[in-house]
Amino acid sequence: MGILERKLKTFYRKTKKGNIIKIVREHYLRDDVWCGLQACTVCEGDIRPLQILSEVKSNIIPFPHHILIDSNVAIHQIDLLCQDSIRNVIIPQTVIQEVKHHSLPVYKRLRDLIDDSSKHFYVFCNEHHGDCFAEREKGETVNDCNDRSIRLTCWWYKQHFQLFKQNVVILTNDMANKKKAEDLELDAFTVLEYVKGLKNAHELLDFVAVADDTDGNDAPDVSQKFMYSPHWSITDIRTALKKGKIKQGVLKTSTKNYLEANVMVEGFDKSVLIQGRENLNRALHDDHVAIEIFPKEKWSSPSTLVIDQQKEEEEKAIDDDEEEKAAIAQEKAMLASSVGEGEKQPTGRVIGIAKRKWRQYCGILKKNVIAESNRHLFVPADKRIPFIRIETRQAEALQSKRILVAIDSWPRDSKNPKGHFVRVIGEIGDKETENEVILLEHDCPHTKFSEAVLKCLPKMPWVITPKDEAERKDLRDLNICSVDPIGCTDIDDALHCRLLPNGNYEVGVHIADVSHFIRPHTAIDQEAQNRSTTVYLTNRRIDMVPDLLSSNLCSLRGEVDRFAFSVIWEITPETEILSSRFYKTIIRSRGELSYEQAQQKIDDPSMNDDLTNSLRNLNMLAKKLKKKRLSDGALVLASMEVKFHVDPDTDTVVDIVAKQHLETMSMVEEFMLLANVTAAETTVKEFPDCAMLRRHPAPPPSNFEPLLLAAESQNIKIDVTSNKTLADSLENAESDKNPFFNNMLRIMTTRCMMQAVYFCSGTLEKQEFYHYGLATPCYTHFTSPIRRYADIIVHRLLAAIIEKDTTYPELLDPKKCSEYSQHINYRHKMAQYAGRASGVITAITNILRILIKRRKKVKKPEEWVLQAQNMEFEEEKTEDNLPKFQFNEKDLCVRCKDVELRPFDEVRIQVCVDSSDIQHEKVVTRLVFPYIEGFSVKSLKASSRRYPRIATQKQKIKV
Fold first, then answer.
1. Which pLDDT value is given to residue 212?
2. Within 10 Å of residue 333's Cβ, how many Cβ atoms?
3. Sheet of strand 260-263: strand arrangement
4. Closest CA to 484 of 599, 606, 613, 359
5. Strands of 922-929's sheet, edge to edge?
6. Angstrom distances, CA of residue 673 to CA of 92, 190, 633, 824
7. Which residues contact residue 18 at a Cβ distance below 8 angstroms, ignoring those fewer than 6 apart?
8. Is the pLDDT of residue 568 over 60?
9. Is 283 or 738 the better-scoring residue by pLDDT?
């Protein structure tokens, strides 16, 4: 037995040029597609995950049974399917295809369930089974045809399983599909019906997603009063977009006011402002929305209020419709009265959702004012997301936990979206829990590497073969060493320098050859591409690649042989580059040094070994390279970065210090920059349309306004005409009164900069390649492939150039390269935000203890000088009796009573932790000097009184 029938599937496709092409594909039907049941004696095949069942687990289904699901269940009930007690599930091929088309994240989770042998999930190829294939009939929609195929699959299984005294039920939330299944005498249930009938229903009901009654169009119902306008259908949105009647863009909700958002659309220089619950019309942050622009007379300015829904709804009952309506009316009045006096911008309202960006949200359960109710409000950690209604029977146990919740729907008659409980993350305040919240909220993949990924790793013990030695340049005789921060285990770069007979220097930068182990299209490559970057939290690292590579085989450790991708230059003593070549190499590092150890070697005159002399020559050349770079206009900026000293035994922070800068740090940086520039020039020359590059756009003049005003207040002139004039201005900006002045100016300049981004060389003109901060026409990343996927792509291009590897279609496709770069940019940005958030939490957890400890040691008052531009004046809801502050934009000063504060003024403060919002604890400063009656606080001495953890309502200072 085998092929029963050969069918031709014909469809038509419209090309980009508007031509219509006919596509014909062959489709084969068979009679030997196996069922997947372990004890089946009829079907052949090795894949048999479905068990023979004998236990009755339901109160409404009186026989043991397998479950067959439709596409809607697979997409919307994935959290339920993940529960341990849901097993022996049949997933038709039609369902898998629909899920993949609808949502890749859900598809990945479903594939993980299928790969988990303990779950007993089985994909049945109904599309190629003669009895289950449904050919689309005239006038039948694609969805109806797919539903019919799923019903036929269930019918076939029911007949087939009778031979082995097994049964199957179909789960669907589509009532029409359920009715047709029952007409075929199939056992069909909605998900809620099925779960309620299980003997362990109390364990599973919380995970059932609420059915979305308004999926698709919002049907008007004149018999019911709604809070929101109906959403337009996708068809109506597309028609209106073509006619230019509406606009489309991504909604970005304000972090300070959850009732206000902006949408960037074509045809407008400024973003369109969306204000108020009704105009937002159930759209959430990052949703792709269709908006209607209001007439110019209705345009407005952003609100000046900071509106926190946690404080707004602190005492409200969640089930009181009249109170909800009153609250909405109050919000409208509040927004109307708080319109700013700034320049007006276009305003509008959301009329439809083109694409939802709902995800799982971290947060806490709001304590319910209604006793013994199963309905609760979930408070997301992301303040841009509204409270979510959920039903749970374990509220008491969840009160002290951070939990994960998913949104299911947002009906027109509900003030808040509806969702369901997913899982407990952990105890509030626990270090590991807070780390996971950071990773989840910033969309940083951090699960364990799958079995498929681990199977791609080389077998241990790993050895270099004679074939490897023949194909690579052997540099094991060179005095190569790495220089990194203390405790670094993912060492991806090393250097060497030696004097040539002609008086020039041979300098090499050697980078871990990660691309040798990560081959295109493998599971490990796909995982690295998805993660795109390593995420560094204060006390945890989430690797882009498995530890065997990141900390072992690809880490350039001392005194072990490793594969490297090397770039070697011949450089004159005046740092003129005479030649550069890339090689696949074998190296053996003579030492894995820290920055401090390398600096000690360079500074110790008694040390004259070859490795030390190599470091001294590298340092000498680096200084000259940097001087040349700065003369070209490269910027030297500063930041408020701090370093946490962690006790490895207790895993606790023992000190917080400003990052120290050593010459060896600059030495390594200069040669990494040179290697990156060389890689960029080489790849763009050979692959002008598909090179992965990195650009840093010049900031618009408006970005520099705060810097210029601050400098002007100190009679300092800053020229921002170009990066060269800006660099010269910063170099010459000094203040006799403030030794920290120049560093503070550079910090302010950093905040004026644009974000550097990856891009495909074929998508921009050459003049747009320029890197403003580094003052180089062309730049990329080549030096950290262990922790950046962009570097792996660059390595693959370079390997093809030196004929050590072959290309593949995606590598040379500008469209794919552009997609990769956008994804990498997103992951890189989220990883940065996650790292900063981790630092904030670590500071909040440890700052009081450390400051008290440190204050006992302070002898010099300048150690406590505050850089005043970090203080903020922010209008929050304050007590009426607090003093009022006035900001004079012309003089750039803040006045309160007889006190004036200007940028760079020295003040004395108290540092405290504000714990009024348990999800958003923050370090706050309280003014001690100059003293403002009713605002400042009296000085506290550490010896007589501990610093308190406070819940302050006072204004924060920002100059």
1. 59
2. 10
3. 272-275, 260-263, 247-253, 288-293, 348-355
4. 599
5. 922-929, 908-914, 949-950
6. 52, 60, 15, 20
7. none
8. yes
9. 283
Residues with Cβ < 8 Å from 724, sequence gap 6 or more? 632, 633, 775
Residue 847: what residue type? I
C-beta separation of 401 from 421 below 8 A: no
- How many CA atoms does the CB half-sphere of 105 hold within 13 Å? 9
How far is the first Cα of the chain from the last one, in angstroms, to the nearest whole number?
81
Candidates 3.90.79.10, 3.10.290.10, 3.40.47.10, 3.40.50.1010; CATH matching 33-206: 3.40.50.1010
819: phi then psi, degrees, rounded to nearest 5:
-65, -45
Question: What pLDDT is stored for residue 736 in this prediction?
Answer: 65
Which residues lie below 8 Å from residue 801, measured CB to CB, with a gap of 6+?
A: 582, 682, 683, 686, 687
| pLDDT single digits (tens) 475-493 | 999 999 999 988 888 899 9
Confidence (pLDDT) at 318: 46
Q: Check: CB of residue 563 under 8 Å from CB of residue 469.
A: no
Residue 243: count of CB within 10 angstroms of its CB: 8
- How many angstroms separate the CA atoms of 122 and 114, rounded? 6
Listed residue (847, 858, 865) closest to 905, CA to CA: 865
Amino acid occupying residue 680: A
Domain boundaries, the chain: 33-206, 234-428, 451-634, 682-837, 866-958
Which residue reads 């808040």 in tokens? 416
The H-assigned helical ranges of 286-415 are 309-312, 321-337, 395-398
Average model confidence (pLDDT) across the chain? 84
**Do residues 589 and 483 touch, judged by C-beta distance below 8 A?**
no
- Residue 562 clears pLDDT 90, i.e. is over it: yes
Single-letter amino acid code for the residue at 204: L
Residue 507: C-alpha distances to residues 581, 618, 696 (Å): 11, 8, 27
Q: What is the pTM of this model?
A: 0.84
Tokens matching residue 460: 């241990």
869-903 tens-digit pLDDT: 333 333 333 344 456 666 666 666 777 777 777 77
What SS3 class is residue 297? helix
Which of 533, 532, 591 shows the shortest CA–CA distance to 560? Answer: 591
The 10 Å Cβ neighbour count of residue 936 is 21
pLDDT per residue over 188-241, tens digit each?
999 999 999 999 898 899 999 976 554 445 555 555 577 899 999 988 999 999
Contact between 167 and 54 (Cβ < 8 Å): no
CA distance 679 to 778: 9
Write the class of the CATH domain 234-428: mainly beta
